[in-house]
Amino acid sequence: MRYIAALFALVLLAASAPSPDISGTWQGTIIVPGIGKLPRVMRITKAGSGYDVKIYSTQESEVPIATRNVKIDGSTITMAFDMNSDPWLNYHRTYQATLSSDGKSLSGTWRVPGVFNVPMVYHRTPPVTLHMLQPTRDLYIDVADGVKDEVLEWGGSGRPMVLLAGQGVTARGWRAIIPDLVTKYHVYSITRRGYGNSSKPLATAQNYNAERLGQDVLVILDKLQIDKPILVGHSLAGEELSYVGTQAPQKAAALIYLDAAYYYAYDGGIPTPPPPSPPPGFPKESPIDVTIDNNPGRFTTPIGLPILAIFANPHNDQPGPGESAAFIAAFNAFTTKQIAAFKKGQPKAQVIVIPHANHFVYISNKDEVLRDIDTFVANLPT
């Protein structure tokens, strides 16, 4: 009986033990597949009987990742994030971590169901002041009947520069380099139709082919009276750059392709590797993405504008869902051939290859890319 009473007392003591207090400021670095290292600051405040969590990814957006869905079970902390607003679109993740015995660190894993698990450690720190650049204007420009594209104006002095994001990425996707660019250029960024806060017309070829997406850019330049900007495009935006360069070169001063001069930007006749099959449970491509993929640009003529094309080759991206080492090797071989074709087809272009960068080359190799851009722009006609 004495043993049972002692055991019962221990159970009561465990049941009445208070939950740890996780409020405060936490900092850590996450390595995101396909992007690289991203510093994050997490602010946790008490909200009634629970917690309010805001995570600032300082290189991605001034908009925090937020949740109040926090569960504490002893030293196990589970946070569930379900967001669907720019720039955190279809953002469904959990972070489960163990609080250290001294309460100074959270060691856990970010989980994306059916996609990947990413380890991350947060350390408790004193409160920090975040100096994060905010857009000076958030504009919605009519680019066609019933279709508006979001344009963020970030300010800055110097030549106008317009940033065109990759597929599925919004105007805020340039956050990693915008603070650097505004010190030398007057910067704008665009969210193309179909994504983020921009309009999402039906997924038809007429609404999403390369010609239509390129025309949207020209409409924005005209309506905002942006005179001969430097156009910078990442990934899919290469087809918008090539559309402007071939159809309205007088509207731009120069084109900068950031891992963007692939078949949709210049068709050199190089066959692309067949895409890998996604694993079971992986989210299907949206109808808009499928339509864009099926209607790429087919540009084959030389462009008279000054061109800087930066390629990542070989890519150091972590294998994505369904991707094998053989697929990555095949894609790198394709990239090598595409670089040669682009040089031949655009003989006046300046082409720079950065080995072991990833597709988001302006994040993985930010300093090098910024230096290359500044050098290129310094040699442009005024």
The average pLDDT score comes to: 90
Total E-strand runs: 17
What gyration radius follows from the Cα positions, in whole Å?
24 Å
Describe the largest sheet: 9 strands, antiparallel
Order of helices and strands: HEEEEEEEEEEEEHEHHEHEHEHEHH
Q: What is the CATH level 1 assignment of the largest domain?
A: Alpha Beta
What would the principal axes of the Cα set say about the shape? globular
CATH architectural grouping of the largest domain: 3-Layer(aba) Sandwich
Strand order, largest beta sheet: 4-3-2-1-9-8-7-6-5
Low-pLDDT parts are: 4-16
Q: What portion of residues is helical? A: 10-25%
Distance, first to last CA: 93 Å
CATH superfamily of the largest domain: Alpha/Beta hydrolase fold, catalytic domain
Q: Tally the helices: what do you get?
A: 9
Tell me the domain tally. Answer: 2
Which structural class do the helices and strands define? alpha/beta
Describe the 3D structure:
The chain has two domains: 20-125, Quinohemoprotein amine dehydrogenase alpha subunit, domain 2 (Lipocalin, Beta Barrel), CATH 2.40.128; 137-378, Rossmann fold, CATH 3.40.50.1820. The chain contains nine helices and 17 strands. The protein has helices at residues 2-16, 178-181, 205-208, 210-223, 238-247, 287-294, 325-345, 361-364, 366-378, and strands at residues 24-32, 36-47, 50-57, 65-67, 69-73, 76-85, 88-99, 105-112, 116-125, 137-144, 147-155, 159-164, 185-191, 230-234, 254-258, 307-312, 350-354. The radius of gyration is 24 Å and the shape is globular. The termini are far apart.
